[in-house]
Amino acid sequence: MTVKVQLPAADVRTRVTVPLRFADGYETVADVFTFTGLADGKEHLALGLGDYRDNPIPLVRPHSECLTGDVFGSERCDCGPQLREAVERIAGAGGFLLYLRQEGRGIGLYAKLDAYALQDQGLDTYAANRALGHADDERDYTAAAQMLHALGADKVTLLTNNPDKGAQLERLGITIDETRPTAVHLSAANARYLRAKVAHTGHTLTLD
C-alpha cells in the first residue's frame, strides 16, 4: 500500500504562450506556466502542449534539466533526444512537460562535470556520484507533484523509463493511470551510461 504524503499547495503564478522550434525543424506552441509555493524554491516550469485542457488524463513527462544535453547537444547522455521526443509526443496527446531544475540527477552542473571526469577514469555514472559524496540519484519530485496539483492534473499518463518517478509521484498524491516508455536513444557515446541506468536503477530500456 502506498502511503500518500500531504503536500503544501502551490499556485500558478503566470502563463505565457511561447512558440517552440527545435534544431531539426520541428515546431509547436507551448503554454509555459510558472508557480509560487514550490517546496524547494526553484524556478521549475510546466509546458502545456497540445490539447492539454481537454485531456482528462494528460500525458506528462518530468524532465530534469540537462544543460549539456538539452542545450549543447552532448552525446554523453540521452537527455536532449528525450526532451525533443517528449515535446512532440505530448503535443500530439495533450499534456505537460515539467522542466525541473535538477541538473545532474540533483547534484548540480559543476558536480556533474566533476563526475564526468571520474567517468573518464573508468567509473560509471553512479559510482562517480558516490565517489563525490552524493547519492546515486538525489532528485525529489515534490515540486513536480505540486505543479501537477496546481494544474488540476491529479491523474496522469507518465512518459518515462525511470520507475522512481512514478513511485515518488504516487506517494505525493498523483495517480499514475499508465506509464509509457520513451524511445531508446542509444549511441556509441552514451551506451555505457544507458547500461548503468538499467543496472543500477532499473530503467526500462532494451539495449542491444
What report would you give on this structure?
This protein has helices at 67-71, 79-93, 109-119, 125-131, 142-150, 163-171, 191-201, and strands spanning 11-21, 27-36, 45-49, 59-64, 95-100, 155-159, 175-180. It is an alpha/beta fold. The chain has a single domain (11-102, 139-197), classed as GTP cyclohydrolase II (Rossmann fold), CATH 3.40.50. Strands 1-2-3-5-4-6-7 form a seven-stranded mixed β-sheet, with helices on both faces. The longest helix has 15 residues, at 79-93. The mean pLDDT is 89.
On the 0 to 100 scale, the average pLDDT is: 89
Which fold name is given in CATH as the topology?
Rossmann fold
The helix/strand series, from N terminus to C terminus, equals EEEEHHEHHHEHEH
Separate helix tally = 7
Strand order of the largest sheet: 1-2-3-5-4-6-7
Major sheet, described briefly? 7 strands, mixed
CATH level 4 superfamily: GTP cyclohydrolase II
Q: Helices and strands: which structural class?
A: alpha/beta
Distance between the ends: 35 Å
Number of E strands: 7
CATH architectural arrangement: 3-Layer(aba) Sandwich
The total number of structural domains is 1
Strand content: 15-25%
